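Quick one: structure tokens for this chain, please?
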Amino acid sequence: MDLGCVLAARAPFSPAVLWAAQMLLVASSETLQCQGPVSTRDSSCHTGALENSREKDFQVKGYTFSKPFHLIVSYDWLVLQGPAMPVFEGDPLVLRCQAWQGWPLTQVTFYRDGSPLGPPGPHWEFSIAAVREADSGQYHCSAAFRSLGPGNPETAASVAITVQELFPVPVLRATPSAEAQEGDAVTLICQTKLPPQRSATHLLFSFHKDGRTVCDRALSPELQIPAVSAAHAGSYWCEATTEDSQVWKQSPRLEVRVQGPPSSAAPPALSPAPQESAAPGTTATDPSEPPPASPPLSSEGPGQPCPLQAPDPHLHHQMGLLLKQMQDMTALLGHLVVELRDLSGRLKLQTSKGRAKYE
């Protein structure tokens, strides 16, 4: 509804008041528009899902209302327009130095806490691609009206900009404990929290151990170790970052210690594997050889969980024996192929000699 209609429909005013109101409307007018038709819950203007409990207060009897905003009317020659919504780390920040009636400006200067952010110029907009908490402060601008000829610059009232923390520095924790026995299951959790206003933001988590990356940019904040061994002991830390990497924070280091099995427990008896005859040109495998070294921990792809698989020395030893036997079998098959080729050549030679004799 037009503001002039509102003034005319109310109680009678004096001609002076009506004239002043009309002059105010002529001097500065803004059109507020609601996107979408005014209708009930069956309308396309109705939102199907509300983000938080606060927005539910604006839905009454099937009608959905827009979010409220603050309208500030200034009578100054110059105003600094800032963001109406809360500003968080990584958000873009745009400030506009607006003149009365949109008059062209020159010598525009932006300030933060009284210090200029650059030399005077013709640009009436100042922007920061991704703000940090250090960008918080009192902002204002000054400029001169170009069309009015040379004169003293006008100064806009200051606007307070507070950049809020998107998420706190993560803390790496081990559950049930960072002191574990060999074979225990341990889970490392990279703990941090987003504010309710940014609950839809996705964070990616990376885990590092002793200067190398164990898991890179996973959606899950957990790193699972089903059965720890001595190879898993070390210094761990994690990183939390946004998908665009504009905001990232690193946790303090966490020392994970792995203790051996209790001394009272007797080691399990291992039955020696039966020795097989070695093929010519090969050496027999000694079952008493130490198992091969555990493979390095590999990192998964982005956005995937990163479980740590604990190495099994006995399984690796058995796999080594099996691999050696397969190599021996391959060598035997190679010798057999050579013998078959020689035998085939001899048979062909004897057959050709027999045919020549009968001819």
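Helices lie at 3-9, 15-27, 53-56, 313-358.
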